[in-house]
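WARN retry 2 of 3 for item q-0093 after timeout on previous attempt; input resubmitted unchanged.
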Amino acid sequence: MIRWAVVPMKPLEEAKSRLATILTPVEKRNLVLSLFTHTIVQLQECDKFEGIAVITADPVIAALAEKMNIHVISEAKPNDLNTSLNEALPFLKEFKLNGMMILPGDLPYLNARVLSDMVSEIEPHHTMMISPDHLLKGTNSLYINPIDNLPFSYGENSFTRHIQFARQMHYNVKIYLSDNIKVDIDSPEDFNLHKDILQHHLLDHQDTISSTEIK
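OK item q-0093 returned
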């Protein structure tokens, strides 16, 4: 079984735009890079994926991913998430993947143990496993096998749409509920509610951030 993890990343200038009311541009960039670094470290420590890929049009994120020995799928220009994933499929299919897990780069409570537990519950064939956000509306983790039959439907209420599409296409559907995955950081309210762990992440990854050139 060949499984990859895929982390799509917006350009730094566009990421977390709603946090611009409470963070300076440098603080916002540092937060994005810190959470991204945390995501990659947890995926590497999980040891359940044969490969990890980052999809991005941002040169700083691409450079950081390469520094961490992660495959980079470079976009010529920023795309919406569904377009980015569809355009990345030809690259991913070259590696004969049996399945892939799509994760955002902003889950502060994500850890390797939870990722291992998730993978252990994945059915081997024709499967979709999905984890929602805390509102049960967004998709915070999506595993699919095969990788190119299910329409990507990220956006408002994507959790419900992904399940509907999967059932229509006769995937085995499993919903994985996890406190470690349901929290993402999009709004000032999210930031303030989880400020303690976000500050911890920033301190933990400050060396990595400071060694990455931000233009």
